[in-house]
Design brief:
globular; 49 strands; 41% strand; 685 residues; 3% helix; seven-stranded mixed sheet
């Protein structure tokens, strides 16, 4: 039974989530750009001397740096200026400061520090810069509550010695000023490196990935005005030039992720669930075990957070792991090309023709991706190839005929002037032989309710003027219908984009009951923001969907972000398609299942249920469609922070009649970008 707790009484419970509200201006990529400090005060704010710098190599974090002898680890680091080439080796580059072992090549991310627990660590750092001091954080005893950093004056060398006492995933980072991690300027934003301390007997067959963010604001005072320039990388590379990972069905996959960037990233795995084994930051780590481990498909990583995850690729084919903020994987992150000789050092920040990246650019040999229009993506995307296990046919899929499969015909359409002068996109289900009007759309798309274990055959028809695709977010299915054009599938059978006036058939058998999402996976900033998203519920045959008990609260976009300068080029929020949803009527003593979905392309979103003076209490029952074990079902304060691509189910039992308020909100402050809050009146009879 739900109970009331005073706001003061639940502050300790909700602190971690509510504290994040103060950083919500960083929930969306471009909002953060307006918060960066002025760049005129720092001596390093001027362009780096490109002619005098070295090429920065990208670091895949496979080989630890330094030397380990007799329980003592020694590493000599220095900071230098360089050019990072996150795309082609002979493509455009961006200037940055980077770490290097003394006398060795510069690296982004910085050299990997990896030692066994109990090692004595000795690190020296040389600062050859003539006009700037450097402060390095994260090198010290990980359990201490604060980290004032090691300051290295211009031209000096300093050393730090500490005991690697706490096993976990940490990182070190530097700044040329007295700035926080999320306030670093463009030239210093790549001064980050992984620090891993291995517990005795712990498996070390894992991979380490560091997320980086580089942003240099434009300058209209130059003879040739320079536009804003932005870049997001995984281990120094941007899609489609990020590393390709290859596994075999049944492998045990272990990853360590470090968000050393200034913004949040909801990281999403296609086709599979993963366990979160630990979460932390540069100083501390919390380890989970057994049923305490979160089991999900999307994990929101705040700035400075780390996580260790594990998963098993159970089905062959091509898959993705990527950030679910639309801008963080958009073609806007492709660097501009200069008209220079191939192989020359090219500063990407000058004007030039942009080249859009695509999944198909590095699709497996023998695929048909080259014959189709590519899906444009860049930035924070990892491509995964899963080879069939012995005896399993290559490219095995669910495409075989299923005469008893349930048939659904889903149309992608557009309606003019849905968002002011902007068109809206939306889905509609065709019932019967006559198709609906071409300008009839639903935002969000119609609720699709499938039954666990029942085959479904969904024909997606494209009535738009551009190519599209549909991703069945969270569903454990075969690769081909997963919905990423030019990538999903296997060599010889790659899913094409759905061209205008064409269709695609997605066949699968949903194996798990829960709350999922379907949404476009093409030109996401435009199509997702404009309305191509909807709720996908899978129910058990013995527990059918009941709209009186199952309450879906879906947050999506309210227009194409690129066309909304009044909202800071972010797509504001809609709740169940409205900025003013109708009241929700409940009955005292009845237990309801609240199904929360965040598929807004640009914002982290808070959900909170409260009266005028108190937060309610609810019980979590599922995350990303997977039922929670009993250990994770304890009642808690009714506050939830989500990133795009996350779903969460809660049970709520109002004890007595009265009035409640379900607030759906984000917060933007101090940067001129308006936030939004959408309250829903909850009436308990």
């Amino acid at each position: 039974m739900a109970a009331l707790r005073t706001v003061a009484a639940v502050l300790a419970i909700a602190t971690a989530q509510l504290t994040a509200a103060s950083q919500a201006a960083r929930v969306s990529p471009r909002a953060h750009r307006q918060m960066l400090p002025a760049h005129s005060a720092s001596p390093r704010s001027q362009p780096l001397r490109v002619s005098a710098v070295s090429r920065i190599t990208t670091n895949d974090n496979r080989r630890p740096a330094g030397r380990l002898e007799r329980g003592v680890y020694t590493l000599r680091l220095e900071v230098r200026e360089g050019m990072l080439f996150p795309e082609e080796a002979n493509g455009p580059g961006v200037p940055a400061l980077a770490f290097a072992e003394v006398g060795a090549a510069l690296q982004v991310p910085g050299p990997l520090v990896r030692v066994p627990q109990g090692t004595e660590v000795r690190v020296s750092i040389h600062n050859p810069l003539p006009d700037s001091s450097i402060t390095v954080h994260g090198l010290g005893t990980q359990s201490r509550a604060d980290d004032s950093g090691l300051r290295i004056p211009a031209g000096a060398t300093r050393q730090v010695t500490f005991k690697a006492e706490t096993p976990g995933t940490f990182f070190y980072w530097g700044t040329t000023g007295n700035r926080d991690l999320n306030d670093r300027e463009w030239h210093e934003s790549q001064l980050s490196g992984a620090l891993v301390i291995d517990a005795p007997g712990a498996p070390v067959e894992d991979r380490v990935f560091v997320i980086g963010h580089w942003f240099r604001p434009g300058d209209s005072t130059l003879a040739v005005p320079r536009p804003d320039q932005e870049l997001m990388v995984i281990n120094g590379r941007s899609w489609p030039h990020t590393e390709r990972l290859t596994f075999t069905q049944g492998d045990s996959v272990r990853w360590r992720w470090i968000n050393a960037s200034a913004v949040s990233h909801p990281m999403h795995l296609h086709g599979f669930y993963f366990y979160v084994e630990s979460r932390g930051d540069a100083r501390t780590e919390r380890t989970y075990s057994g049923d305490a481990r979160p089991f999900l498909v999307t994990q929101l990583m705040l700035s400075g957070e780390t996580m260790r995850v594990s998963w098993v690729p159970e089905r062959s084919g091509n898959w993705l792991f990527h950030c679910h903020f639309a801008f963080h994987v958009s073609h806007h992150l492709v660097l501009k090309r200069d008209v220079v000789a191939r192989g020359a050092v090219a500063d990407s920040t000058t004007a030039g023709g942009a080249t859009h990246a695509s999944h198909a650019a590095q699709s497996p040999r023998g695929s048909v991706a080259a014959a189709v229009v590519p899906h444009q993506m860049a930035g924070l995307v990892l491509g995964i190839h899963v080879r069939p296990a012995a005896g399993v046919p290559v490219g095995a899929s669910t495409s075989s005929a299923r005469p008893r499969a349930r048939a659904i015909r889903l149309l992608a359409q557009a309606a003019p002037n849905r968002f002011g002068r902007l068109a809206g996109f939306g889905y509609v289900v065709q019932d019967g032989p006559a198709p609906p009007a071409r300008d009839s759309i639903s935002i969000p798309g119609p609720l699709l309710v499938l039954r666990r274990g029942e085959p479904v055959r969904i024909t997606v028809v494209n009535h738009l003027a551009e190519a599209t695709a549909v991703h069945w977010h969270g569903i454990e299915l075969e690769s081909f219908p997963d919905g990423v054009p030019g990538w999903s599938g296997a060599p010889g059978r790659i899913m094409p984009p759905i061209a205008p006036r064409d269709s695609f058939v997605a066949e699968f058998v949903p194996p798990r009951a829960g709350t999922f999402i379907y949404h476009t996976h093409a030109n996401e900033q435009l199509q997702l923001g404009s309305g191509l998203y909807g709720a996908l519920l899978v129910v058990d045959p013995e527990r059918p969907f009941d709209s009186a008990i199952d309450k879906v609260i879906l947050v999506g976009g309210a227009g194409a972000a690129d066309s909304l300068p009044q909202f800071g080029l972010e797509s504001p929020g809609l709740v169940n398609g409205s900025s003013a949803p109708p009241p929700m009527d409940l009955r005292a003593g009845t237990t309801y299942r609240l199904r929360f979905i965040n598929i807004n392309p640009d914002f982290r979103v808070f959900f909170s249920l409260m009266s005028d003076s108190a937060l309610a209490v609810w019980r979590p029952v599922a995350k990303d469609g997977a039922d929670l074990p009993a250990l994770q079902r304890a009642e808690r304060a009714a506050v939830l922070l989500t990133g795009p691509g996350e779903t969460a189910d809660f049970e709520f039992t109002p004890a007595t009649p009265g009035e409640w308020r379900l607030e759906v909100k984000t917060q933007i402050s101090g940067n001129g970008v308006p936030g939004w809050i959408i309250p829903i009146r909850v009436r308990v009879r």
